[in-house]
Write a structure and sequence with these properties.
Number of strands: 4
Structural class: alpha+beta
Largest sheet: 4 strands, antiparallel
Oligomer: single chain
Shape: globular
Order of helices and strands: HHEEEEH
Signal peptide: 1-22
Keywords: Signal
């Protein structure tokens, strides 16, 4: 990762710092995922996976039902749905939860 990418991810993921904030981030991500018609009973894992145009961060989100999705955190802290991890993997070389 470049220094800019690392800095952008660190800044965006301050949203998830601390236990209370992590629970809040989980609720926000769950809400964005379900607002797009996807089931996500609860969030079980989150992982930063990169940045996209303008420095917005991409975060992989795993749900308790086994589904995983990608959300975007914009520089203004707005969160939006990008798509499923399966779609991301099919369209790019990126993986949501690299091993």
């Amino acid at each position: 990762m470049t220094r800019r990418t690392t800095a952008a991810l660190a800044a965006a993921l301050t949203l998830m710092a601390g236990a209370a904030a992590a629970q809040s981030a989980e609720r926000i991500f769950q809400g964005v995922i379900t607002s797009e018609g996807n089931a996500c009973p609860s969030v079980t894992r989150m992982q930063a996976i990169g940045t996209i145009e303008g420095g917005d961060a991409m975060v992989a989100v795993a749900c308790s039902n086994g589904d995983s999705h990608v959300v975007r955190i914009a520089n203004d802290n707005q969160v939006s749905y990008i798509g499923s991890c399966g779609t991301l993997s099919a369209m790019t070389d990126a993986e949501c939860f690299a091993r």
